[in-house]
Amino acid sequence: MKYSVSVRKFDAVIVGAGGAGLRAAIQLSESGYKAAVLTKVFPTRSHTVAAQGGVAASLGNSEEDHWHWHMYDTVKGSDWLGDQDAIEFMCKKANECVIELEHYGMPFDRTDSGRIYQRPFGGHMSNFGEKPVRRSCAAADRTGHAMLHAMYQRNVKANTQFFIEWMALDLIRDSEGEVLGVTAMDMETGEIVAFHAKATIFATGGGGRIYYSSTNAFINTGDGLGIAARAGIPLEDMEFWQFHPTGVAGAGVLITEGVRGEGGILLNAQGERFMERYAPNAKDLASRDVVSRAMTTEINEGRGCGPNKDFVLLDISHLDPATIMKRLPGIREIAIQFAGVDCIKEPIPVVPTAHYQMGGIPTNYSGQVVVPGRRSQNEIVPGFYAAGECACASVHGANRLGTNSLLDLLVFGKSAGESAVDQLKQSPKAHKEMPQGEIDRALTRIDRLNNQKDGASVHETQLEMRRTMQKHAGVFRFADLLTQGVDKILQVRENVQRTEIKDKSAVFNTARVEALELDNLIEVAVATMVSAEARKESRGARLWYKECNRLDYKSVKLTPLTVETIELKTRAY
Amino acid sequence: MTTRTLQFNIYRYDPDQDKKPWMQDIAVEVDSTDRKLLDALVKLKAKDDAIAFRRSCREGVCGSDAMNINGKNGLACLTDLSVFPAGKPIVLRPLPGLPVIRDLIVDMTQFFKQYHSITPYLINNEPPPERERLQSPEDREELDGLYECILCGCCSTACPSFWWNPDKFVGPAGLLAAYRFIADTRDQATSARLDNLEDPYRLFRCHTIMNCVDACPRGLNPTLAIGKIKAMLVQRAI
Ligand SMILES: Cc1cc2nc3c(=O)[nH]c(=O)nc-3n(C[C@H](O)[C@H](O)[C@H](O)COP(=O)(O)OP(=O)(O)OC[C@H]3O[C@@H](n4cnc5c(N)ncnc54)[C@H](O)[C@@H]3O)c2cc1C
Ligand code: SF4
Ligand code: SF4
Ligand code: FES
């Protein structure tokens, strides 16, 4: 089959219109550059819309706070695996970025003095770990929604050019490794176009759909990671996945940590507030990996609730109903819709659920993609930037603190945008020449899919992948399970390479989209399993069961930008 | 695990293959873990991968999977399977009044054009302060019931006035968004916003039929917002 691929030229192409992509787009559009923003869904349908609890910034609107304390908490939360320079950069920039959002019109909740409302959140403490602090800036329990819409609106004002329901397929790189854009498919017509750009920014979000039980949306298929991996860019820290303590049992839908921030507590079958045993200081607001492990231990030791003893309870029925209606209205709806309980009266059944990908496409804190090269460990890939959940800056290390992800996408979305603008200012007028062979990478995949006979079902194959990941790379990691897991996931990959779809239509072919997404998911799954098997230590969100301790000082960058290094300690909350 | 079979009657149209739309009868087995219509649709798609529909968040916040379910607009991910009476097929059609791209997927261009026509962003021409613009909790409360819109289109495509004049009437979703900015104490463009709507079609095609309120899966009330804009225009005239 022959395809004619048309080429369209832009200064920059941004793949993704979630929080990170929209923030980067504002930077480019307001600097007068012509950027194309590609997205699989209408921008406000991106998964940032689902974020509930808030965005971290040490505004100090309700009590004293400081970016340095925020930095300390983030480093500690990351189990000292995060880059301290990147973390300092992010925590320092937080106030500016959140205030900008307010100026864009984001409807934050307010304190009595009219300032942005802040609530406590897991792992956020004052004075270097002393006691919980109100740092999470919130719009009820719909912070992501309020944020994403405000940023989309700002882009409407800035006249950003969107390509909606366009799916990026593969990267275009020349022989020197410079990135020259992407190939993409118009989902409505099936047309394939090469977007030729001087700067390419990836903001494609996470790949949480590799797990069977996940808080992530259907579209969170790790496309940016799959695309980067196929173009020879190694992924970083892929063994670190965050399991959120409170996904609705059975449904996977998230219940924000803000519920515990507002006073909610976790109970086991005996009605015991068990977090008091695991984290005497922070209790239910210890960091997520700590709470998820405690819950899993309770369940494994027979203290789970329900007929199968397979969940614990999240209780807020002791709170004033007015507080619930004002601060957590969306949670009440979710509890009614997906757990069948009214949380004003009854507790919600919850289990740890796959939630966030700490690893991703490696970048520095300017959003430039870096790879290990001949000259250094962090050689810049010219013309290529990444931000948000698909990128690894790395500020979350082995465990992300709640509300630091919305902050990450603001700070690094902006800095990736700024870096791209700087590059464009220095770039020659003309685009570099586009190598035809690179366009063929995407065409080969489409062609294979169109002509596959007697292949594997996309639906069955993705189920097999998700079950394998759930069983072999969950909250606790066991050496034997991981070794088997690597074999299994590599087998699943063979099936992915021969998936077949019945639907051959050119028009809005969602079967084709799902098959192409699976090509990306499997890259994420394989990277996760293989690196989880290879890292034989317990750190943050990935805990080797029993036998392993943390291997310190391994490839950990400990030099912040201006302050002193936060020294390694044993983590206790 | 207990399973049961659900019968569906689904609107199908693929312009690449079909001369005209047709209704497909198809059944699917669901179990007790399948709570919502979207769960059943995902299983249906595993049987017939050519059924096309949009979906993403599966929790009612992204606005992707709006469709016409047994004659009423709603989100598949928030529709309980238990509400469907046994023995009758579940009839699924695309949202009414918009061009169909394929199967349950409609072309929402016109809907978004109307949203964009109300200058959907905060306008405040004073140089922004160092810190946040202050807003009292009471003033902020004015935005409740307005800012939560997920742009799913259930309301506008249930509105007869929007069916007849999708190019001229802003429609309930757009008008709700217009009032969201009018009601925001930080926004300074109220009179320009009112000018933009003072028109026999853009605002005044709304005849308070209330279909929109009934259709909104987020429980929002566009009619109330429209009423407030109309009242402001009346106020301004005297
Ligand atoms: C339920 C839930 C609640 C959360 N709550 C919080 C919270 O309270 N605080 C917090 O800090 N974090 C929270 N998080 C995490 C945070 O929301 C996400 O990490 C963050 O929103 C990711 O943003 P993003 O911009 O990187 O990606 P996304 O918002 O996922 O956007 C990805 C974009 O990329 C596009 N895209 C993907 N692939 C392609 C492709 N191939 N071609 C074209 N476009 C593509 C998509 O269309 C989309 O526009 C939550 C996460 C979940 C799941
Ligand atoms: S109340 Fe107005 S906007 Fe709503 S359905 Fe009726 S005519 Fe349409
Ligand atoms: S007002 Fe309701 S029905 Fe209308 S678009 Fe918004 S959320 Fe959907
Ligand atoms: S899938 Fe997002 S609203 Fe239903």
List the helices and strands and how they pair.
The complex is a heterodimer of chains A (573) and B (238).
Chain A: E1 6-15, H1 19-30, E2 35-39, E3 55-56, H2 67-77, H3 84-104, E4 118-126, E5 131-137, H4 143-157, E6 161-164, E7 166-173, E8 179-186, E9 192-202, H5 223-230, E10 241-248, H6 258-261, E11 265-267, H7 275-278, H8 288-300, E12 312-315, H9 321-327, H10 329-339, E13 348-357, E14 361-362, E15 368-371, E16 379-386, E17 391-392, H11 404-426, H12 436-451, E18 456-457, H13 458-472, E19 476-477, H14 479-496, E20 499-500, H15 510-534, E21 543-544
Parallel strand pairs in A: 1-2, 1-9, 2-6, 9-16, 14-17, 18-20, 19-21
Antiparallel strand pairs in A: 3-5, 4-5, 7-8, 8-9, 10-13, 11-12, 12-13, 15-16
Chain B: E1 3-12, E2 22-31, H1 37-47, E3 66-69, E4 72-75, E5 90-93, E6 100-102, E7 105-106, H2 109-116, H3 137-141, H4 160-164, H5 171-182, H6 190-197, H7 211-215, H8 222-237
Parallel strand pairs in B: 1-5
Antiparallel strand pairs in B: 1-2, 3-4, 3-5, 6-7
One iron/sulfur cluster binds next to helix 7 and helix 8 of chain B.
Which terms summarize this structure?
heterodimer, A: 573 residues, alpha/beta, eight-stranded mixed sheet, 15 helices, 35% helix, globular, B: 238 residues, alpha+beta, two-stranded antiparallel sheet, 8 helices, binds iron/sulfur cluster, binds FE2/S2 (inorganic) cluster
